[in-house]
Specification:
alpha/beta, two-stranded antiparallel sheet, 255 residues
Length: 255
C-alpha cells in the first residue's frame, strides 16, 4: 500500500528539463570589477560564479542551459565551447530595461525549467535538483534582512511577499522552478506586461509575486545558507575570497 502511494506521488512530480541563467546585467554594485568583467564571470576562489551554477546543473543531469547575456556579452562566448548543450541568448534591451526583458527574450524555453540568477555561488547541487512538486522559489531563513523580498507562507505555500523593510523570515532567493502549465501562464503575463502594458522597468519576479499572484499557486523549497551565496558587493566578495582584500584597501585587482 505504501509503495503504491509513493509511486502515485512520484507520478505527480514535475521534472525540470532545462535551465535559464540570467546574466545580462551590468553589475554596477560590483564596480570597479565589473568595468571589464560581467558580474557572473567574476572568479571566486578561482572559479567564475556562473560556472558553479552550470556544474551544479550538470550534477543534476540538466544540460540544456540558456544563458541570457547583454552587458559585455562577448565575454561569455567560451561557455558554448566548454559546456555542451549550452546556448547564449542575447538580450538587446539589457541597458534600457529591467530584468523582465531578459525573461522576455527567453520566454519560449520556460516550460519545465529552472531559472537562476548567474551571479550566485552554488555549493550544493540539490538547490537545482530537477524534481519538484510545485512551481515556486527557493527560500532561506534570514535574520534582519534589509530591503529583501520576504515571503509570507502557509506551510510551503506562498501567500504573499513584503519588501523594502527590515524583516526576519523566509527570504526569496533567485532560484525558481516552473512546470509546463505555470510556465505558459508566466509567459502570457510577461508578454502582457512587456508588450501591452509597456511595464519594462520591473523585475520579472514582480509578475507572479505582485502583479498576477492569483494566477499561480507557488510553493517554496527551503534551503540552507551554506547551499548558495549571493554576492552583491566587493565587501561580500572579499569575505569569501581573500584575493579581493587589496581592492578594499585601495590597491588594484585584476579580473
Amino acid at each position: 500500500m505504501l509503495c503504491a502511494r509513493l509511486k502515485k506521488w512520484e507520478i505527480k512530480m514535475n521534472i525540470a528539463k532545462r535551465a535559464i541563467v540570467m546574466a545580462a546585467g551590468k553589475g554596477t554594485r560590483m564596480r570597479p570589477l565589473t568595468y571589464q568583467t560581467p558580474k557572473p564571470l567574476i572568479k571566486v576562489n578561482g572559479k567564475p560564479m556562473i560556472e558553479t551554477i552550470i556544474e551544479a546543473l550538470h550534477d543534476s543531469q540538466i544540460f540544456e542551459i540558456y544563458v541570457v547575456v547583454g552587458y559585455l556579452k562577448e565575454k561569455f562566448a567560451y561557455l558554448e565551447t566548454k559546456y555542451r548543450a549550452l546556448t547564449l541568448v542575447e538580450n538587446p534591451f539589457f541597458d534600457k530595461y529591467n530584468n523582465i526583458s531578459s525573461l522576455y527574450v527567453v520566454r519560449e524555453h520556460l516550460a519545465d525549467s529552472i531559472i537562476v540568477d548567474g551571479d550566485q555561488i552554488v555549493s550544493n547541487a540539490q538547490v537545482v535538483a530537477p524534481k519538484f512538486n510545485a512551481s515556486g522559489y527557493a527560500t532561506i531563513w534570514t535574520e534582519n534582512a534589509v530591503n529583501e523580498w520576504m515571503l509570507k507562507l502557509d506551510g510551503n505555500r506562498i501567500l504573499g511577499c513584503i519588501r523594502d523593510e527590515v524583516l526576519t523570515g523566509w527570504r526569496l532567493y533567485s532560484i525558481s522552478r516552473w512546470s509546463k502549465k505555470d510556465a505558459l501562464t508566466l509567459r502570457k503575463y510577461v508578454e502582457f506586461e512587456f508588450e501591452t502594458q509597456k511595464n519594462r522597468q520591473i523585475y520579472w519576479d514582480d509578475v507572479p509575486i505582485f502583479l498576477h499572484p492569483d494566477e499561480f499557486e507557488l510553493e517554496v523549497t527551503k534551503i540552507s545558507p551554506d547551499d548558495v551565496q549571493e554576492i552583491d558587493s566587493v565587501d561580500q566578495l572579499a569575505d569569501v575570497d581573500q584575493h579581493y582584500r587589496d581592492l578594499l584597501s585601495g590597491d588594484s585587482a585584476n579580473e
